[in-house]
Amino acid sequence: MIQWWQILLLTLYSFYQICDELTIVSSAGSPVFAGFISGLVMGDVQTGLLIGGSLQLMVLGVGTFGGASRIDATSGAVLATAFSVAQGIDPEQAVVTIAVPVAALLTYLDILGRMSTTFFAHRVDAAIERFDYKGIELNYLLGAIPWGLSRALPVFLALWLGGGFVENLVATIDNYKWFANGLVLAGRMLPGLGFAILLHTLPAKRYFHYLAMGFGLTAMLTVLYGNISSLGGAVGSLVGAVNETLGADAAIAFTNNFKGLSMIGISIIGVFLAVLHYQNARRTAVAAPVSNVESGEIEDDEF
């Protein structure tokens, strides 16, 4: 059962997250952050992070260039986490049965929010002509109201009225295990879809050598550090057996952990390649003719 104060907090967060995404951009409007906040409010942070992380991977390469609308994975993470914790739904099922449909449905409300702000945009234009600076500030702030309501209102209604619907949905899914298993499989495919969209968006053809080298290094370092991790686990088990023999007074401490070395190695290599690319781009810009530099041409890898 979702308490009234949980509904209030999640509604207020839903109002704020879209405003943050459009102005401050502190990542508070990201799906993984929404999962964390929702899990914190509902008392199960792990479930929130599982749902939020899955949706974050799904929209990893999706942008809103040119005013285009995208699925609202953040609101989907809020509702999926809330109902998953309150109704005991499996997180993977919550992603595909609640988060994805809600995220797709709220695309229409995103368009409505964009259309509503044009009213305040025209009022800002009129205030500019009158040199009314207070009017500009006021209408700019008022423009945040339709944006916030486009997320807060559906989240509030879903949390307030959706408990019985979710229970019926879960009961129906339990009666059709094959369907539930299919949904779980589809949910596991979503992160791969997100990476595919990301690769399609990035200029992978131009920098294919970097992509290939990254995959190669990841494969090699994973094997290398995987073996080191196994060695560390074996040594840890050996030390544990020795400690049981020696007793608490002469126990040997072994707290090293090798599991994070793989990502550390990849991060170091990534920083090196980023610096190398920056230096090459800087040298190219200095050596380029003045006409090309001043033309303001934007290449496809600069979007």
From TrEMBL:
The chain crosses the membrane at residues 140-166, 178-200, 207-228, 260-278. One of its GO terms (biological process) is phosphoenolpyruvate-dependent sugar phosphotransferase system. InterPro entries: GatZ_KbaZ_carbometab (IPR050303), PTS_IIC_man (IPR004700). Pfam families: EII-Sor. It is a multi-pass membrane protein. It is found in: Cell membrane. Keywords: Cell membrane, Membrane, Phosphotransferase system, Sugar transport, Transmembrane, Transmembrane helix, Transport. One of its GO terms (cellular component) is plasma membrane. The keyword tRNA-binding does not apply. It comes from the Bacteria. The keyword Plastid does not apply. This is PTS fructose transporter subunit IIC. It comes from Streptococcus ovuberis.
